[in-house]
Amino acid sequence: MLKAVLPLLALLLVTCAAPRQPASAPAPETLRSESSSRAHHAVPAPSHKPAIPALEAPPPGELSGPDSLKRLDFRGGEPQVPIGLMQGRREVRFSPKGRMRLRFGGEAERMLEAPAGSMWTVRVTDGTPAELSARIQLEELPFADKEGLAEMQARWQARGVAVRAHVLGALYGIAGKVIDNRRYLLLLDEELTPKQATERQAELLRQFGVRTTLFEEVRAPARAILELRDEAGNVAGLAQDNLFVETLDGAGFDVRQVEHDVGYDNHGFEDRSFRGTLQLSVDRHGTLAVVNVVKLEELLKGLVPSEIYARAHPEALKAQAVTARGEVLAKVGIKHLADPYLLCSEQHCAVYRGRTGEAASTSAAVEATRGQGLFSSDGKLVDSVYSAMCGGHTEDNDVVWGGPPNPSLRGRPDLIGPAEGLPTPASLAEYLQAELPAACRLSTFARAGKYRWEKRFTVEQVNALTAHLAVGPVHALSLGERGVSGRARTLTVAGEKGVTQVRGELNIRRLFGMLNSAMALVEEERDGEGHLTGWRFRGGGWGHGVGMCQTGAIGRAEAGQRYQDILRFYFNGAEVASIY
Fold first, then answer.
1. Other CB atoms closer than 10 Å to residue 401's CB: what's the count?
2. Residue 468 gets which letter from DSSP?
3. Strand (E) or helix (H) holding 350
4. Helix (H, G, I), strand (E, B) or coil at 179
5. Residue 261 burial (C-beta neighbours within 10 Å; 0-12, 13-18, 19+)
6. Taking a C-beta distance cutoff of 8 angstroms, is the pair 292, 274 a contact?
7. Percentage of the chain with pLDDT > 70?
8. Largest CA distance in the chain
9. CB contact at 8 A, 116 and 100
10. What is the pLDDT of residue 51?
């Protein structure tokens, strides 16, 4: 394929040699090209270099992070963020809403211009997946806890296990504000295949009773040739691994058939419109990823209405805008280390639909809080996470996700009014039955079936859902290790062939087809003769419960609280301040 098209490229593309630069800042070039009946005129490429966040080098002997070209771009003070729109595609179609300039990746930069409304297709050929390895993550510690890191290293070494430290996250500045989300990971000093890593995890569990997670690394990057075709089907050029596309007036792009809600019931495809620029890159599978590089404020306009009701009280919308801004910045360098973007546009990071998802009310909230984030008393940016409905009490971050406790993410009663004399989650059965002045119950957007709920399973259903646990027919279920909100982080499953434990709030919920939350009790149900017929889960809340309760924030706004007060409550005294 490549050899057949190269003669055509020699006619289509006139290129000049230029010094190799990072993919996020293509080298200046000019190109003259003809494709189909559309003329593409030679233009000079802008000469610039993006500001790159300053990362503190790991101490000697520590692992370096995965090699990546993805960067936050700070030109103008407002960061531009690479957001993954979709991956795993063989072909993608897009159309510029203004005059387009496209750059081809590779050793020599080539450029093509095209008019607004033209339709383009990018296809993957000769794709080779990335070669991945895995290390087992034993511990996670705050970056300031050097003493704790040394203690953990000594403990594992005393067990005869070789370990090494890795710094995850980034240290960077925006308009004089320092953002630091670094933390230490203690990793097993063995480079393993994914299969070997799973076997080693089971061995560590048997030996030391510890549950571990996997940390992926890219040993060899994915490679592919990207083929660009115009709307008549003519090949306009080939690129190695990356294509970079912008509109000269910033009008953005329409992207056809964007895949969304992967793994959820409402999974589907939708034509969507996006601001900013596009980067089409080979992903870890050797297929195509579509990345939208967009200013943070524009990103939020397409993100906030997907996260909260656009009809909600304006102060709640402002609170959501600030939390979403902080959560994006707090996740830089933490997620998707083996992918060609910083964050995805799905529930795993934050739902983002681009211009297609924007609403006037939420855009106004983004503008009213432009550049604002939440900072703790020690001046650190808060990882301002949120969930739909806390059920009357928020939860500690370490209960839900493990890792070190975050002082800004401490669970507390979410009540409007005094709490004296009211039941607490320590007596969960009584708590779930009480009439509480919870902010998320009093909100006009409250959903009774989410604030308190029940879900029943027959014996046959539970046996099917737990078959992979290999304990045989189940005769007992027990939730335990509860946090301050009553959310469980362990589920003990006893069957005829043995007993096992499911750990993690999300793992418990997923096992039973995504329970609303882990703030729940599980009770046996028996027939008149005493035979086990199934189990009933009774619970409260919708989501993990850490940080801001979105329905509760609406209730607090309706009760007259300003967004600064709402955020101060949910994030343990954190204050709103301008980042840029």
1. 17
2. G
3. none
4. strand
5. middle
6. yes
7. 86
8. 85
9. yes
10. 32
Residue 569 parent element (H or E): helix 563-570
C-alpha triplet 141, 144, 150: angle, nearest 5°: 60
Cα separation, 111 vs 43, in Å, equals 8
Cα dihedral value 465, 470, 476, 477, nearest 10: -50
pLDDT digits (tens, 9 = 90+) for 457-504: 999 999 999 999 989 999 999 999 999 999 999 999 999 999 999 988
> Which one-letter amino acid corresponds to residue 278?
L
Please give the order of strands across the beta sheet that includes 532-540. 452-458, 532-540, 520-526
Query: Checking phi first, is residue 176 left (phi over 0); if not, alpha (psi -120 to 50) or beta?
Result: left
CA distances, 42 to each of 45, 112, 140 (Å): 9, 8, 52
The amino acid at residue 476 is A
Residue 342 neighbours by CB under 8 Å, 6+ apart: 70, 72, 81, 82, 83, 331, 332, 333, 335, 336
Whether the per-residue pLDDT at 280 is higher than 90: the answer is yes
Residue 460's Cβ-count burial label (10 Å; 0-12, 13-18, 19+) is exposed
Q: Please state the separation of Cα 342 from the chain's center in Å.
A: 8
State residue 108's pLDDT score: 64
Q: What are phi and psi of 110, to 5 degrees?
A: -130, 150
Neighbours of 198 (CB within 10 A): 14
Contact 541, 450 (CB under 8 A): yes
Contact 89, 287 (CB under 8 A): yes
Cα gap 127→385, rounded to integer Å = 37
Instruction: Provide the pairing of β-strand 548-549 with 386-387.
Output: parallel
Q: Which helix (H) or strand (E) holds 238?
A: strand 235-240
Query: CA-CA distance, 387 to 366, in Å (whole number)?
Result: 19
Q: Answer positive or negative: Cα dihedral of 434, 438, 440, 445.
A: positive
Please give the structure tokens belonging to residue 499: 């007993």
pLDDT score of 18: 31
* pLDDT classification of 154: cutoffs 50, 70, 90: very high
Q: Is 61 in contact with 164 (CB distance < 8 Å)? A: yes
Going by C-alpha positions, the residue among 254, 270, 259 that lies closest to residue 88 is 259
Q: Would you give the DSSP letter of residue 182?
A: -
Burial pattern 222-243, b for ≥16 Cβ within 10 A else e, equals bebbbbbbbbeeebbbbbbbbb
Q: Is 59 exposed, middle or buried, given 0-12, 13-18 or 19+ CB atoms closer than 10 A? A: exposed
Q: How far apart are CA 324 and CA 308, in angstroms?
A: 11
